[in-house]
Amino acid sequence: VIDEILRVLRLIKDTKCPPRAHEILQELRDISSMAMEHFDEKILPALKQSICTSVVSGVSSYELPGGSLMISHSPSSATSIYGHHSITHDNFNRTIKKVFLKTKKNKMSFLTLQGRITKLRLRMKRQACQIRLQNKKMQEQSKKIHEQEQQISDMKRHFEEWEQKIGDLTAELSRAREDSPKTDSIDSCKRKRMELTKRDSSTKELQAKKRKLIVERKTSTDAKDVKFKEFMSKLLKDSSD
């Protein structure tokens, strides 16, 4: 029975896809039922017969639960049974101790792994928090970049408008420079004419004043006065010519 149970356990351990739990339990129930049937059919009759043939006087006896047969114990048989029981008990204790040590070792390994898993979870949480912060910063940066792109597009549009205005002003200035020499020549001609007119009028006024002075001056018989008069008359005549 133990061999069959170990076979089932090895099957569960070695198989990558073990059967379902209810199937395993059903298999174990079948094994236990077969063991009980085998004990009732094979072991129990032989045990009763051996007990009946080995009755010893002076030894306490008691009935079996299933019949009226007596189980007797002699000192030698008791010693052998107890010795066998002690050996089996020692083996069982050693096995239990090994299992306990292995379980303890597995528990320590499990606790170590659990601590590592806890640290990894904390690290993953921190990294997730950092990732969220980085994503938030990236969103803010993308928003700022979008705003800066809009500002750059507005500045570019204003720059193009000002460039167009500067081009128009430059064209108007060049046209004004082309038209300015003609205006300057006309103005200079006008100024020259006005200056000539002023000179002529001033000359005529001066001549009129000189004539008036000559006419209003008294006649004199002095030779100097006569010469001066002739000189002035000649001068006036030359200037009039």
TrEMBL record:
Determine the domain of life of the protein's source.
Answer: Eukaryota
Region Disordered: start-end pairs: 175-205
In the record, biological process GO terms are: protein polyubiquitination
Entry's InterPro entries? Answer: FBXO28 (IPR039719)
Q: What is the protein's given name?
A: Uncharacterized protein
Source lineage: Eukaryota, Metazoa, Ecdysozoa, Arthropoda, Hexapoda
